[in-house]
Design brief:
This protein is mainly α. 61% of the residues lie in helices and 4% in strands. The protein contains ten helices and two strands; from the N terminus they run ααααααββαααα. A two-stranded antiparallel ribbon has the order 1-2. β1 and β2 form a beta hairpin. α3 packs across α8. The chain is globular. 30% of the residues are buried. The chain binds fe (ii) ion. Fe (ii) ion (FE2) binds next to α4. The site of fe (ii) ion has 5 residues, from α4.
Length: 210
């Protein structure tokens, strides 16, 4: 085997650390982050900057790992359980987050300190609750359908895994994990109760059956 010269090794290291691909990747990463903030402006309402970044990273990871591009997101339905639903995943995610925020306002005003709601957790959970659908669904011959992965792991599981990988705190992952029927038999935090009901309101008003 040929020994690599120190110069070649340095060149290879240079390209590994700062090569053209990485420059491209960091530019496309910045663009993707901007796009995510544009389509999900509720993320900006999260006060904790680190949490905000982790929420964005989780969406980035879901888009990349699911093999989607930003344009696809407008076509991903929020559910496959309502035939011909025209509501996409982004519209649903925003509606659930905003419904949850309104509920939080009302209960906080009505009950004061008796109900303690962490707004950052609530918003992050609202924005992330269905991110796992990026793995549960797949585009096959131009049609969006259940993915093979999705047959084994519904979105509360795949979404939790994505969020865990991106360092999202447990109290937010709990909202992803417990927002749907998977969470019916166990503990739900106050924020998880709100997201669960906000999600089902936005599912049932559009004809979804539980
Ligand atoms: Fe949902």
């Amino acid at each position: 085997m040929l020994a690599r010269s120190p110069d070649l090794a340095r060149l290879a290291d240079f390209h590994r650390v700062r090569g053209p691909d990485d420059t491209f990747n960091s530019n496309s990463k910045k663009n993707m982050k901007k796009e995510i903030l544009k389509i999900l402006p509720e993320i900006r309402k999260i006060k904790d900057q680190k949490l905000r970044e982790k929420v964005i990273s989780t969406w980035e990871e879901g888009i990349r790992f699911g093999g989607w591009d930003m344009e696809d997101l407008k076509k991903v339905p929020f559910t496959l359980l309502i035939a011909d639903s025209r509501v996409n995943l982004i519209e649903h995610t925003r509606a659930v987050t905003n419904t949850a925020l309104r509920v939080a306002e009302v209960v906080s005003r009505a009950y004061g300190n008796s109900v303690k709601i962490d707004k950052d957790v609530l918003i992050a959970g609202g924005v992330l609750h269905d991110v796992g659908k990026l793995l549960e669904y797949a585009k096959v011959k131009g049609k969006i359908t259940k993915s093979i992965k999705g047959k084994f792991l519904r979105h509360p599981f795949s979404g939790s895994a994505l969020a865990y990988k991106c360092g999202v705190p447990d109290e937010v992952i709990h909202l992803i994990a417990a927002h749907s029927h998977e969470g019916d038999q166990g503990f739900r935090s106050i924020e998880a109760i709100i997201i669960h009901h906000a999600d089902f309101i936005n599912f049932e008003v559009l004809g979804g059956k539980t």
